[in-house]
Design goal:
With about 240 residues, the chain is an alpha/beta fold. The chain has helices spanning about 15-25, 40-50, 75-80, 90-95, 100-110, 125-130, 130-145, 170-185, 190, 205-210, 230-240, and strands at about 5-10, 30-35, 55, 80-85, 115-120, 155, 195-200, 220. Bound molecules: phosphoenolpyruvate.
Length: about 240
């Protein structure tokens, strides 16, 4: 039986006031929730609101050294992160992160005891060409080449649905989630049943219920709607009703 999980990705937004609003509503967010604020707020969030479950939005593949501006997974863990998003489409597109780098980050996170949330998803052009399944499988094969499948979350986020207001239909989302679960089953049939698979891409209170109803969708990775605690609470309620 998989526990539902909803992760808030604040991106380059939010502050301690927003964290406080989440902390005050935490008990009504019922399902298992983690928030990923900008990394600079992690330690303060942990100190001021110790009951929050926290994640980072990125980590370095390196442990230490001359990598100006980077934060290692160990540093993020010591600042309070239990999860880290890896391979988000914005990192892949805007910061040119390759599958090989994503794989190294997954490994670095697991070595530091932080659970990687591997993000995969196809672009609009790839979907229009009917290539979504092969793109997702290639991202899984590469990104999880060295991974320990027992400490992992996977988020399917079609690039065309992120921040656009367009959402995959429940059938489209379930089809890819089933594909991912099937791929995991070929590697480890029992672990595949316990790995949480999240959907991300313009999830709102109005569409969350029908997405989370799907058999292989265990929760969501929420961007825009996670900046409004009431909307986020409504999304969490939808997953709780699953
Ligand atoms: C995201 O950034 O991971 C995301 C899903 O964003 P949004 O919910 O705004 O589409």
């Amino acid at each position: 039986m998989r526990q539902p999980l909803v992760i808030a990705n604040w991106k380059l937004n939010g502050d301690l006031e927003l964290a406080k609003a989440f902390a005050e509503r935490w008990s009504s967010l019922a399902s298992k929730v983690a928030i990923c604020p900008p990394a600079v707020f992690l330690s303060d969030c942990k100190r001021l609101f110790p009951h929050l479950v926290l994640g980072a939005q990125n980590c370095s593949a390196e442990q230490s050294g001359a990598f100006t501006g980077e934060l290692s997974a160990d540093m993020l863990a010591s600042a309070g992160a239990d999860y880290v998003l890896i391979g988000h489409s914005e990192r892949r597109a805007l910061f040119h992160e390759s599958d090989a780098l994503v794989a190294r980050k997954v490994e670095a996170a697991q070595n530091a005891g932080v659970i990687p949330v591997l993000c995969v998803g196809e672009t609009l052009e790839q979907r229009q060409a009917g290539a979504e399944a092969s793109v997702i499988i290639a991202q899984l094969e590469a990104g999880l080449a060295q991974a320990d499948l027992s400490r992992l979350v996977i988020a399917y986020e079609p690039v065309w649905a992120i921040g656009t207001g367009e959402t995959a239909s429940p059938d489209q989302a379930q089809e890819i989630h089933a594909l991912i679960r099937g791929w995991l089953k070929q590697r480890n049939a029992s672990l595949a049943e316990s790995i949480q698979l999240l959907y991300g891409g313009s999830v709102k209170p109005a569409n969350a219920g029908e997405l989370f109803e799907q058999q292989d969708i265990d929760g969501g990775l929420i961007g825009g709607a996670s900046l409004d605690v009431e909307q986020f609470e409504a999304i969490c309620k939808a997953v709780q009703d699953k």
